[in-house]
Design brief:
11 helices, 6-stranded antiparallel beta sheet, 4-stranded antiparallel beta sheet
């Protein structure tokens, strides 16, 4: 025999449920009012929503409402195999008012002191078991009419919210991935020209207000076309990746490296205005050493004489990234011409 219907009027329940759905824009915001409603509907003093980690074999209490002696703590994690939820699911039982008799071997039930237990699964549209919606008491209490029906309705509402948040999370991750892709070079996985210019503008604005200088090192890989022609574009790509790795290894704290295009890279570094020339010279030497020497690219091995590197510094108050990049490019070409003269090209 079912106990009498909850004293809560149907119109009151519907009104409060509608308010919960209207204002519950997050899973927690939706669930907490539902747990309060669930207590009124079932007459059980502890109501809670769980999630199930199937790989780890664990069940965790996400949100809980406790009003009397029995307390199911939020964050409580127990082995899924020992839970009343699993037993109820497998036996297709949703309400038990003699837990000790039916499931006396459950350590979790004994430790919590559960005498009456109600549970319905929360499944997403694809049928995946997200968790369970539960109610419990430390006293034997008869099932109220329509209590399990209301629990099923609540579980469906929660499942829709879980799906919605999952979709939003997937969209956020996709947006992040797109943003990263839009700012990342496909070959070297370094920041690309777009990311470089954004970073230059940010650092120039900071340097202009902080009385510092931004150094830009423009790196052009002399002889890169010959490497491609002699060994093929696959080896050329591996060489670009290797150069990118060596540049990253030569950075100081706070430095930034990007692949500008083709065989061109740029390194940014901040320094005090009065030390800019000295730091620029040391920077050029450090980057030159990093990019020169012996390269072993799987089955292709060769010695590389190094790139042409031009380093320039921002002017006091300068905020034009394109102008700074153009000056660094011009400095690089001065070095390239000098290297050609020394080689007798």
């Amino acid at each position: 025999m079912h106990a009498a219907v909850s004293p809560m009027a149907v119109d009151d329940l519907v009104g409060r449920l509608a308010d919960s759905m209207e204002h519950g824009d997050t899973l927690e915001g939706l669930v907490r009012p539902l747990l309060e409603l669930l207590e009124a509907v079932t007459g059980l003093e502890s109501t809670y929503l769980t999630s199930i980690d199937h790989k780890a074999g664990l069940q965790s209490v996400l949100y809980a409402r406790n009003t009397r002696r029995l307390s199911v703590a939020e964050g409580l994690t127990v082995p899924w195999e020992d839970t009343l939820c699993r037993r109820a699911l497998e036996e297709q039982v949703h309400y038990v008012d003699d837990v000790a008799s039916r499931w006396g071997d459950s350590a979790a039930a004994r430790e919590l002191g559960i005498a009456t237990y109600a549970s319905v699964p929360v499944r997403t549209a694809g049928g995946q078991l997200f968790g369970t919606l539960c109610a419990a008491s430390d006293e034997p209490r008869p099932e109220r009419a329509d209590a399990v029906t209301v629990m099923r309705m609540f579980s469906q509402i929660i499942a829709r919210q879980v799906e919605r948040e999952g979709l939003l999370d997937a969209l956020r991750k996709a947006n992040v991935a797109l943003a990263v892709s839009a700012n990342t070079d496909d070959v070297t996985r370094l920041p690309n020209r777009r990311a470089l210019l954004e970073e230059m503008r940010r650092r120039l604005n900071a340097a202009a207000t902080g009385g510092k200088a931004l150094l830009a090192a423009f790196i052009d890989l002399d002889g890169f076309k010959g490497i491609n022609d002699r060994h093929g574009h696959d080896v050329g790509d591996r060489f670009l990746v290797a150069i990118g790795g060596r540049l990253q290894g030569a950075l100081r704290d706070g430095d930034f490296v990007a692949r500008l295009s083709g065989d061109e890279f740029v390194v940014l570094s901040g320094t005090r205005q009065e030390a800019a020339e000295q730091v620029a010279s040391a920077m050029a030497e450090r980057l030159q050493a990093a990019c020169s020497g012996h390269f072993a690219l799987d089955d292709v091995v060769f010695d590389y004489a190094g790139p042409s590197i031009g380093v320039t510094m921002s002017l006091p108050g300068e905020t034009d990234a394109e102008a700074l990049l153009a000056r660094a490019d011009a400095e690089m070409y001065k070095i390239k011409r000098l290297r050609r003269q020394l080689r007798g090209d």
